[in-house]
Amino acid sequence: MSGIENDDANPQLTRIAARDAIKARQILINAAQDGPIAPDKTSHAQLVEKIKAALKAITKEGNKTLEMRAVTQYRNGGTIIEMLTEEDAKYLKQSENKEEFIKHLDPKATFKERAYPVIIQFAPLTFDPDDIEQIRELERENNWEQETITMARWVKPPNKRTNHQQVAHIMLTMKDPKSANDGIRNGVTLNQARLQMKKNKREPIRCAKCQNYGHIARECLSHHDTCANC
Q: What is the CATH number of the domain that holds 47?
C-alpha cells in the first residue's frame, strides 16, 4: 500500500517523503456518470476550467486564490486534483469548503478520503474502539489532528476472546499518512501506555489493467491499460 511505510523493510525515506508530499496535496473526487464532469461529458481542458472556476468560488483568508497543479481523471470517474500547496489541499478538505467546492463543480460528485489501515498491537481491553470520545483522546494523546482516525475496531471479534485475555489488536483506518508513519516508526501511546503500531499487510484488491481498486483485471470495463507507476 502506498502512503505508509512497511515496518518489515528498510524504506528509502527521501522517496517516501516526496511521495507523501504529493499525496498530501491531492484531492480525490468521484464524478457521477450522469454528472457534468463525467469523463464522457467533458474534455480534459474543460474539466480544468471547471475546477479553476469552482476553486475561485471558495473564499480564503486574505482573499488568496486556491490553485491547482494538475488534474487526472480516470474512465470510472475517479478524479485526482493536485493542489499547488498542502495548505490549499487541507483548506479545501474542510467540511464547509469542500461542500461549497462540490456545489460549484458538480453537485453529484463526492469527496473521497485516502485510507491508511494500521494495527495497534496488544492494546488493553479497557479501551473501547466504539467510543468516539476515547478515539478523540487517542488522537490528542499522540498529537494527531482531530478526526485523523476514521474507523477503529478490534481485529478479532470480542466473542472469540479467551476468558483470561487482557490485550488484543486494534485496527485503525487513518486519513493522514504522516501520522500513520510516525506511529509505525515511533509507536503510539494509549492511556499512557507505549504500544507498537504496524502497517496492515492485507492489501486492497487492485486491478492490474486500470490500477483502480475493488476489482481485478478480468472484471475490468476499461478499454485501455494504465501504467501503475504513472
A: 3.30.70
Please provide the DSSP assignment of 17-35 as one string. Answer: HHHHHHHHTEEEEEPPTTS
**DSSP per-residue letters across 171-198:** EEEES-HHHHHHHHHH-EEETTEEE-EE
Let me know if residue 165 belongs to a domain. Answer: yes
Residue 67 bridge partners (DSSP): none
Q: What is the pTM of this model?
A: 0.60
Side-chain-facing half-sphere of 50: CA atoms under 13 Å = 22
On the question of pLDDT at 112 being above 70, the answer is yes
The total number of structural domains that make up the chain: 2
189 or 76: which leads in pLDDT:
189
Q: Is 134 exposed, middle or buried (0-12, 13-18, 19+ CB in 10 A)?
A: middle
